[in-house]
Every structure is written in C-alpha cells, then in structure tokens.
Amino acid sequence: MIPKMIRVGQSRLLEVDNRVVVPAKTHLRIIVTSADVLHSWAVPSLGVKCDLCTWSFKSTSILVQREGVYYGQCSEICGTNHAFMPIVVEVLIGKIMVLG
C-alpha cells in the first residue's frame, strides 16, 4: 500500500504497490513486454533501459552489486497516464523467498 504521508527524502509519485525484488550480485535477465502501445522500461541508476513496440518481447541483462532501492519510469510517451508509470527495483543481499 502506498503511504499517505511522504517522509523527508522520499520521492513523490515514484512509489509502487508491488516492487520488483531481486538479489544482489546475481546476473539477472529481465524480460519485458507491451500489450497496448510503445513503452520503455527504464531504471537509470541501474543503467538499464529497454524500448519495446506493441505486442513485442525484449530482454536485457543486469548485474547489481549494491543493495538498495532504485527508481525508474516509463521513458516513452505512451499515452494519457504515461507520467504515472513508476518502476521500483529493490535489491537485497542474501536469499530472497518467493511467496506465491
């Protein structure tokens, strides 16, 4: 749930309900797709940007060395709600448990 109050140092309109949680120091392959319009999955602080067309799949690889929270957004003008498409990647050290 997105908090009602913004704390000092917290980014406004960049928080999400469900973060992408990944392990640190692990080679990762990210696969993105778009079912409606052009999109661009970008997290600049991780050095990753993946542009894709409608009904296409693209993959990219990353290796994150440091634990932390990294923010990104769709960087393609894709429609009315383009400004409200934040991405949050949380990188953790150690084992990550997947809950289903």
UniProtKB/TrEMBL annotation:
It is found in: Membrane. Its main location: membrane. Keywords: Copper, Electron transport, Membrane, Metal-binding, Transport. It catalyses: 4 Fe(II)-[cytochrome c] + O2 + 8 H(+)(in) = 4 Fe(III)-[cytochrome c] + 2 H2O + 4 H(+)(out). InterPro entries: CcO_II (IPR045187), CcO_II-like_C (IPR002429), Copper_CuA (IPR001505), Cupredoxin (IPR008972). GO terms for biological process: ATP synthesis coupled electron transport. It holds the Pfam family COX2. GO terms for cellular component: membrane. Residues 1-100 form the Cytochrome oxidase subunit II copper A binding domain. GO terms for molecular function: copper ion binding; cytochrome-c oxidase activity. Its cofactor is Cu cation. Gene3D superfamilies: Cupredoxins - blue copper proteins. Belongs to the cytochrome c oxidase subunit 2 family. This is Cytochrome c oxidase polypeptide II. The lineage of its organism: Eukaryota, Viridiplantae, Streptophyta, Embryophyta, Tracheophyta.
